[in-house]
Amino acid sequence: MVRRRRARAGRPHLPNDAKLAAEHRMVIIVPVYEETETGVYYNTAAVFDADGSYLGKYHKTHIPQVAGFWEKFFFKPGQSNWPVFDTAYGKIGVYICYDRHFPEGWRALALNGAEVIFNPSATVAGLSQYLWELEQPASAAANGCFIAAINRVGTEAPWNIGNFYGSSYIVNPRGKIEAQASDTDDELLVHEIDLDMVREVRNNWQFFRDRRPKLTPASPTASSPVNKSGCSKIAGANNELINQGRHRRHPREYLPRRRAVCGR
């Protein structure tokens, strides 16, 4: 089911979802078909905090044009600047469906502070199923974060483009799947995660410290402007963590232990 929502004051009008978030003390991510102005549509995910407050939204960045998924006809590509939402349970990012095939977005969200990245999807068996348990675990390990990979089950009449293979799962920063749902049945996946693992894995591996962004061609974007050296400023800011070969401790390392629950 696709929910179409007209934006009001720059945000989707979703009063029922805000109410549910507050009632159940849950952070809710709501994918919708959003009309921001007449004739302009985005594949949008709105984020509500556990008190029902609206935190913001993410527009799908990469729009596919393949058999059964002619999305360029419907959606405008997003320019959401990789937002990270500071929720009651941790810092989260959103990366929608086809976005998952592009590693740059996972990295940008992690660099912006995401501890858990949610990837709501609707994808069928065939073209991409073999990548389902490959890309997200690899991205979780490469970026030291949890990823909640979410997919639906069943079929969609009248198009019947194939079976949606479900298999939603939560993968930890080491790339290990900790919990997984059915590939055929509608299920609610509830699993407790330890956010301290994010800090532990990043401190052990130091992938962000050892990056060499100046050697990688940078693409000029609103979220990652390029300076005269050709290095993106987001990467340059990350290099400030390196001081005479030593990694400065991030302020979050002094925070108390926290736990969070993710669900599908």
From TrEMBL:
One Gene Ontology MF term: hydrolase activity, acting on carbon-nitrogen (but not peptide) bonds, in linear amides
Domain of life per record: Bacteria
Domain CN hydrolase: 1-195
Chain coiled-coil ranges: none
Keyword terms, alphabetized: Hydrolase
InterPro entries reported in the protein's UniProt record: Aliph_Amidase/BUP, C-N_Hydrolase, C-N_Hydrolase_sf
Name this protein carries in UniProt: CN hydrolase domain-containing protein
Source organism (scientific name): Vreelandella sulfidaeris
